Amino acid sequence: MRQESRQEAVWDPELYAAHSAHHRNQDQTFLATVRLMPGDQVLDLGCGTGEFTNRLASLVPTGAVLGVDASAEQIARAR
Q1: Nearest to 18 by CA among 57, 51, 44, 56
Q2: Going by C-beta distance under 8 Å and a sequence separation of 6 or more, which residues neighbour residue 44?
Q3: Is the pLDDT of residue 43 over 60?
Q4: Which of 29, 35, 67, 77 could form a disulfide with 13 if both were Cys (CB 3.0 to 4.6 A apart)?
Q5: b/e string for 34-49 if b means 16 or more Cβ within 10 A?
Q6: How many Cβ atoms sit within 10 Å of the Cβ of residue 68?
Q7: CB-based burial of residue 21 (10 Å sphere; 0-12 exposed, 13-18 middle, 19+ buried)?
Q8: Has residue 29 got a pLDDT over 80?
Q9: How distant is the alpha carbon of residue 56 from its chain centre?
Q10: pTM here?
Q11: Long-range CB contacts for residues 57-65, cutoff 8 Å, separation at least 24
Q12: How far apart are alpha carbons 33 and 62 in whole angstroms?
């Protein structure tokens, strides 16, 4: 039986946040294509440090937003 080695991605949350402006520049364009209702439930896959996740949460005040990321460091920063 062959064992595969899995390496976890390690991200520097501070470095990521400092260089993610190009993502934030696309947020409004994306949001214009989605009709969110106040009670919606949203899943943010690859949430990084959570900036967009927080923005989504403000758009669904009686709903819920869950951010998921493969990097424990990113999730720690998002919290």
Answers
A1: 51
A2: 52, 53, 56, 65, 66, 67, 68
A3: yes
A4: 77
A5: eeeeeeeebebeebbb
A6: 13
A7: exposed
A8: yes
A9: 10
A10: 0.75
A11: 59/31, 60/36, 62/38, 63/37, 63/38, 63/39, 65/41
A12: 21
Quick one: average pLDDT of 44-69? Answer: 95
Within 8 A by CB and 6+ apart from 28, the residues are: none
What is the dihedral angle through the alpha carbons of 51, 55, 58, 62, rounded to the nearest 10 degrees? Answer: -90
Q: Which helix (H) or strand (E) holds 31?
A: helix 21-31
Higher pLDDT, 19 or 28: 28
Asked if 60 contacts 36 with a C-beta cutoff of 8 angstroms, the reply is yes
Q: How confident is the model over 31-57, as a mean pLDDT?
A: 95
Q: What is the pLDDT of residue 9?
A: 62
